[in-house]
Design a protein that fits this description.
alpha/beta; five-stranded mixed beta sheet; 8 strands; elongated; binds zinc ion
């Protein structure tokens, strides 16, 4: 069976339940051997009429969805795979409203699906970026959300008291800090929400993610002033910006502007609690976009995302913060979250 090359071909292929099932099996178990998600063994029989397996070791049945982001979902594989295709390939992301209309589900089902797909898109490779003999790594942080800049001073102070936030300068009030590290040679980004912009936090991530001895460029020395112990650290000197054209963080700045544009344009309102997942989504598309050396296409990105659905689960309770700490908002998933 051919893997579809376009969204149209994917819709045609996956609308047939048997073909959708075969495709899902093929992408989930890329090696070709179906193994039980509970015990990992391949001792089972297949009940063709019901498209389920019976594991002789566990004495239990399993479907292609068990142990994946799709587990317990009443929605069909056709809808799941089209949603995956769209999120993996739409450069500006896709909102739960758009997806709901496209595949015919309720908006909050689409919202939940998209978050589970982002879980599958999460980067799980732990190799270090950088190379002591190679090109540079950029590190930069940005702030997302909050409209404190335009807020009246008294309102700002009041909000600050209510939230008990640390004052880091008016501009950052109510915003979420995000740090990114970009390997220019590999064209790979790692990104995450950080609790603060203290030196230990900023430098800690670089120590964890970048090989010692690599060139690291930052746009300011503040917070990064001890990097020279382990790395070749240079920072953008705004006064001499054009003297050394290599020392800049433009790669990350472009990434931030695309990310912020998508948050404003496509997603409109995102809670800080969920921000990491939107970052995972953007990083997935960035790290897997077509380059001269690596000409990936829509089909490749879809298969990659599908191959990562197993071993990752996200329950509604986890997603809405009921079982974890409760930064959540009671309006989660209704599209009425705190505006970003
Ligand atoms: Zn088993």
């Amino acid at each position: 069976m051919d893997t579809p090359r376009t969204l149209q071909a994917a819709i045609a292929q996956f609308s047939d339940p048997q073909r959708a099932f075969e495709a899902a099996v093929r992408f989930r178990w890329l090696g070709g051997e179906v193994t039980c998600p509970r015990c990992g063994k391949a001792k089972h029989s297949f009940i063709k009429t019901r498209r389920i397996w019976f594991c002789y070791v566990c004495k239990k049945q399993f479907t292609v969805k068990v142990g994946t982001i799709m587990e317990d979902s009443p929605l069909g594989l056709d809808k799941w795979m089209i949603a995956l295709w769209m999120l993996a390939n739409c450069k500006n992301g896709i909102s739960s409203y758009e997806l709901a209309k496209a595949i015919g589900v309720r908006q909050n089902s689409a919202w939940f699906m998209l978050h589970r797909i982002r879980e599958a898109m999460k980067n799980k490779s732990w190799f270090k970026l950088g190379d002591p003999d190679g090109g540079a790594v950029e590190a930069d942080e940005t702030y997302i959300g909050g409209k404190a800049v335009n807020m009246h001073k008294s309102h700002k102070l009041k909000l600050q008291q209510i939230r008990g936030e640390e004052r880091r300068g008016d501009v950052y009030l109510g915003k979420t800090a995000v740090q990114g590290i970009l390997d220019r040679d590999l064209r790979q980004i790692r990104c995450k929400v950080i609790p603060n912009v203290k030196r230990e936090t900023l430098q800690g991530e670089i120590l964890k993610q970048v090989r010692y001895g690599s060139k690291v460029y930052t746009d300011s020395a503040i917070g990064y002033d001890l990097l020279h112990n382990r790395f070749v650290h240079e920072c953008v000197n705004h006064a001499e910006r054009y003297v050394n054209g290599q020392v800049h963080t433009n790669g990350l700045e472009n990434f931030w502007s695309l990310f912020k544009r998508n948050l404003r344009g496509t997603y409109v309102s995102v809670e800080p609690f969920h921000l990491d997942r939107y970052l995972d989504e953007q990083v997935f598309r960035f790290n897997n976009r077509a380059t001269k050396d690596n000409p990936l296409n829509d089909s490749d990105r879809f298969i990659l995302a599908m191959s990562q659905v197993a071993g990752r689960r996200l329950t509604y309770a986890q997603l809405t913060g009921k079982q974890v700490d409760s930064l959540h908002h009671s309006a989660a998933g209704t599209g009425q979250e705190e505006p970003f």
